[in-house]
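User: Second chain of the day. Same drill as before.
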Amino acid sequence: MHITIVTPILNRSAFIEQSFRSIIEQRGDFSLEYWVIDGGSDDGTLGILGQYHNKLHYISESDRGQAHALNKGMAVASSDIIGWLNSDDIYLPGTLDKVARCFRQNPGCQWLIGKCRIIDHEGREIRRLVSWYKNSRLTRYSYKNLLHENFISQPAVFFRRSFFRDVGHFDESLHYAMDYDLWLRMGAISNPVILHEYIAAFRWHPLSKTSAQLRNSLQEAAVVAHRYASDRPATLARAWLYRLGVRLAYALLDTVRR
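Assistant: Same format as last time:
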């Protein structure tokens, strides 16, 4: 089985090598194509990319943001299965072999979702309660629940290239919730296969988009949910309660850490 991983990047030299190695050091019964789509970094990222030139393909040019970079990556991807890993995040050992096996065992699977840890800038696991909550929601996956809240961890999602092309490209007008918008379009067509194993880790640090712009991210997610909801008043109310709960939960977690 052939797997393509796409990494959009702009000035993330602090973590990119860890992300690279978590991909290129994967072993198992699959073949790997790796594309890095750089938006014109000027912080040393290109030097790191050059060190791995025989392990990956990359494009470095200005773009219109993360969603545009992802669309460029999807356009050059040639494999049956595609994953998207941001430059801060990592795959756990054995991830791609597990993903390949899952797709082989489920030929009707269009997309799959695994479990994801949260790590800090030093790679230590943090926010275990958040991971537990998202895993519990994932276990009881339904499209209705997904409309109310985005409990899917983006680094732990893989999908068929043909399915992505049927569903459509990333919405380039979105800055934070382009993944949630894609999940809702995918979920409207096909339920995912849930892989009940940890396969990725999302890095939470002060410069990450989710960390730095949590309020804006949650607000954009609510706008996205509104697009697809049939019972809009109820969906909006649930989305508002969810955003409030998330902000209170993260504020409490930050207080405890201090």
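The radius of gyration is 18 Å.

User: Great, on to the next one.
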